[in-house]
Amino acid sequence: MSFEFTGKRVLVAGGSRGIGRAIALGFARAGADVAICARSQGPLDATWEEIAALGVRAAATACDLGDGEQVNAWVAAAADALGGIDVLVNNASGFGGPDTEEGWAAGLSVDVMATVRASRAAAPYLKLSRGSIVNVSSISGYKPSLRTPAYAAVKALLINYTQSQAAAFAPDGVRVNAVAPGSIEFPGGSWEQRRLAGEPLYANTLARIPFGRMGEAEEVADVAMFLASPLARWVTGQTIVVDGGQLLS
Predict the structure, then answer these.
(1) What's the superkingdom here (predicted)?
(2) Is-contact 202 233, C-beta < 8 A?
(3) What is the mean pLDDT of the chain?
(4) What share of the chain in percent tops pLDDT 70?
(5) Could you point out which of 6, 116, 123, 146 has its C-alpha 20 to 30 Å from the C-alpha of 170?
(6) Which position among 8, 109, 132, 155 bears the catalytic label?
(7) DSSP assignment string, 90-143
C-alpha cells in the first residue's frame, strides 16, 4: 500500500537524519511539500536536496529546538513557505540519558518543550486544515531505565502529553498520535556506532529483539505516515509501538 499526500504540507522537527529524515522523505515521496529543521547545517542541507529532488516544495531551516523563539520562528517560516500546515511531526530529541542536571535539561528542553512549543505554534494552521500531529516517543517510555532514566522519563511524558493534546484538539478536528520506536539502526546513528565499536550493549540489545535484527528508520516512518493519513481518520490519542517485539522480551 502506498500513501497519497499530494498537496499536503508537512513539517518535521529534527528532520535531517535518522528517523526524522526517513519521515520527511517518506512524505515527500508520497507527494507532500515538506519543511524540516535541525541544528546541524550539513545533514540539513543534504536532506533538503533529497527532498527537493523529488519535485515537491522543500524548505530547510537551521534551528536550535531547545530555544523557544527559534522554534516559533521556524514554524511560522515553514508555514509561510508551504502555504500552511497539514501535518506536524515532532521528532527532535536532546538524547539526555543520564540522571544528571545536563541529562534532564537536554531531554526537557528538546524532547518535551520543543514538542509543546512547535505544537502550540502550529495549532492555528492545523485547525484551519483539520490536520494532525505525530509525536515521536520511544519504547523507553514504557519501562524503567537504570542506564538512561532521564531519557525514559521524558519519552513517557510524551506518551501522556499525546493523549492530553488529542483531547484538547479533538473539538477542532485535529488528531494527535505518537510512535514509540524500539532500537533503530541507521547510518551515523548511535546503534551503528555501538555495533562498529563492538560494544556489548549492541549484542545484548539485539538478543532481546524477537525478529533478530535492529529496526530501520523507514519502518518507523511508515507508521508515522499511516497515523497522519486518512486511513487513521478515527485514531487519536494513541501511541503505536514500532519495535519488532522488543518490548515483549
Answers:
(1) Bacteria
(2) no
(3) 97
(4) 100
(5) 6
(6) 155
(7) E-------SSSHHHHHHIIIIIIHHHHHHHHHHHHHHHHHT-EEEEE--GGGGS
From the candidates 125, 151, 161, 202, which is the catalytic residue? 151
Residue pLDDT, tens place only, 6-52: 999 999 999 999 999 999 999 999 999 999 999 999 999 999 999 99
d(Cα 125, Cα 104) in Å, to the nearest integer? 31
Q: Is residue 171 part of a domain?
A: yes
Q: Which domain holds residue 29?
A: 9-182+218-241
Active site residue 155: yes
CATH number of the domain that residue 146 is part of: 3.40.50.720
Catalytic residue among 109, 138, 140, 229: 138
Report how many domains make up the chain: 1
Known catalytic membership, residue 8: no
Give tens-digit pLDDT for 145-186.
Answer: 999 999 999 999 999 999 999 999 999 999 999 999 999 999
- Tell me, yes or no, whether 247 lies in a domain: no
* pLDDT tens digits, one per residue of 87-100: 999 999 999 989 99
Catalytic residue at 151?
A: yes
For residues 51 and 45, give the distance between their C-alpha atoms in angstroms, rounded to a whole number.
Answer: 10
C-alpha cell at 98: 543520564
